[in-house]
Amino acid sequence: MSIKNIAVLIIGLLFQAAAYGANHQGHAMHDHSMMGGDANKAMGSGILHQVDADKKMVNLTHEPIPSLNWPEMTMDLPVTKRVDLSRFKAGDQVHFTLKKGRDNHFRIISMEPRQ
Q1: Rounded Cα–Cα distance for residues 63 and 92 (Å)
Q2: Which of the two residues, 20 and 42, has the higher pLDDT score?
Q3: Is 48 exposed, middle or buried (CB count within 10 Å of its CB: 0-12, 13-18, 19+)?
Q4: Which of 40, 67, 75, 80 is deepest in the core (most CB within 10 A)?
Q5: Residue 92 falls within a domain, yes or no?
Q6: Does residue 108 belong to any structural domain of this protein?
Q7: Long-range CB contacts (< 8 A, 24+ apart) of 23-30?
Q8: pLDDT in tens, 26-63
Q9: For the chain, how many structural domains are there in total?
Q10: What CATH number has the domain bearing residue 79?
Q11: Range of the domain at 96
Q12: What is the gyration radius of the CA atoms in the chain, in angstroms?
C-alpha cells in the first residue's frame, strides 16, 4: 500500500469519526427505541429546553442514565397524560421516570422539579 493510499484511508477514517461524533453528541433523539439497555423503567435528571403541553412532549438534556446505557444527551421525549406539563417551563431542572411502552419507545410517566 502506498503512502498516498494510507493518507487517503486515514483522512477517510477521520471524516467518518467526525461525522459519527456530530450525529451522536447533543442531538435530538426522535427514535430512542434502538438505544441499549434492558430496563423497562428508569429514572433520570435533566434540564428542560422546551415544553409542548399540546403535543405532550418535552425537549430536555438529561444526565447519563446508566441503567439504559444512555449517555448525556439532548432529546425529545413524550410524556403520558398523568404528567401535568402546566407546572413546567423551559429552564426548569427536573427529575423524571421513564417507562418503555409496548411500542418499545420510552415515555416520561412522572416528572418533578429538582431542588
Answers
A1: 14
A2: 42
A3: buried
A4: 75
A5: yes
A6: yes
A7: 25/73, 26/61, 26/73, 26/74, 27/73, 27/74, 27/75, 28/59, 28/74, 28/75, 28/76, 29/73, 29/75, 29/76, 30/75, 30/76
A8: 444 444 544 555 689 999 999 999 999 999 999 999 99
A9: 1
A10: 2.40.50.320
A11: 28-113
A12: 18
